[in-house]
Amino acid sequence: MTVTGSTLVITAASPAPATAPAARRRAAGRAAGPYRRLFALPGTRGFTAGNLIARLPMGMFGVSAVMMIAGQRGSYALAGAVTATGLAATAVVAPLTARLIDRHGQARIAVPATLIAVLGSLSLIVCVRTGAPAWTLFASYAVTATTPNIGGMSRARWTHLLRDSPAAHHTAMSFEQAADELCFMLGPVLAAFLCGVLFPEAGTLAGAALLLTGMLVFTSCRATQPPVTAAPRRGSPLRALGPLLPLFLVTGVVFGSMEVASIAYLDFQGLGAASGLVLALQAAGSCAAGLLYGTVRARSLKACVCALAVLMTLPWAAAATGSVPALACALVLAGMATAPTMVTAMSQVHARTPEGRLNEGMTLAVTAIFAGIAVGSASAGSVVEGAGPVAAYAVPAAAALIALAIALTGRSTARPGTCQHPVRSSRGPRRARA
Length: 434
Known about the structure:
Largest sheet: 2 strands, antiparallel
Structural class: mainly alpha
């Protein structure tokens, strides 16, 4: 209230503009990190917990089988042959299991497939323990090939939930890759600890228990499971992913050869006991880079593979100096290039795989990686025997250059964006272009 001359003027203070609830929520969403927003979605924490529990044994089974068979039978050759047979069986069986999951649903197929795999692990323990013929070890470990691709099923759920949000989908794929690196870093360490401290079968027993428990938790989260449609499935994932599978194969060569070269180099330096720790540095670098990559805009596959080709030369140069600390730093830096490459390549798998066959497509990519790991391990081992451990680091460097050539000449270099799957909009379903 004020007085102006002889006039009384009544004024009211203008109220401060109130922030609408929707605006406050948008501001809070912007302030929150991308991973916090990701796991704020209903049901995501539940299936992620089961996913991580079931994924950890993926890095345990191979080491556990080698330590158990070699410890009980006294033959690393037999142990290696058994695990190689399991890998070959996985290359055949895993895509078929993934096809059934796409066709009939995750819970309906994944649980019985996991039970069969667990029975195979238990059979392996009994056969090793009782001195059964060697062929029973091969048969038992081959049965574990029915293990579902839990990483692929988790990525399929994210793709279903985030099919109308490319940026959030990129963050989810980055998280999944970081989870892969973390589990394959911790799995072998846990397996070696259990087998060495407790008893030779402890690693396989623990892995089987974790796999079954995690799969039951994962499949119990039905709300986030991708729906199964009765529409006919057209197109072949193998044909659609043709330009990408060679890239995944060569990337697997990078992984397998780097591991063998590092183990041989450290053993040559008299530090064989530290090989696990040094290899963990590479996985740690990749895990950190994967999480960071999920917070920034996705790059093209060509740019990611170019960075991979450059950084994979660093371990070779560091090993030539004879300095283990320099090699450790180089492995961290080299590892930081692998996660962005894998995240971007997997985004291309999502974009290219025919509708309704996403699990099968991702399993084909993983199978190509496993095949590359086997080739890389054998190649690096041959170079170590013939030219020494330093020269073996040329194998991952050369494989990364081949990957770059594939990316430059292939049709898989687009920046990941939206996927070729139905996207919701206010006007109804539509198909987004990658």
